[in-house]
Specification:
Number of strands: 2
Radius of gyration: 16 Å
Number of domains: 2
Number of helices: 5
Length: about 100
Amino acid sequence: MLARTRAVAQVRVKPYKSTAKSFPTKTEAKAWAEAAERSLRDLRKQKIDRADLSKLAIKTLVEEYLADSETKALRCFDDLELYTGAWSGRRSAPQVIDSLSMGVQ
């Protein structure tokens, strides 16, 4: 049975695009929003100011990394393609912000 959406969390931290996510409970929505906001503020302090970071999928980030000429020049490039293949092969990958707000860095 699908969980019904009862609460939507929205996060806005400049210079990032606003992002929102639906949750079955208000408590879960609030927890995610607080963690996501904290993560974005930490990234801003580190001068990581890619505007689309709050909506960026891990799949897209991996594909951009593998397409970079400096990455392709690495001796370990073939291994990188192998290790990141699970992310780039996905149809719908999780967003970077979800990984950050869960403490995965």
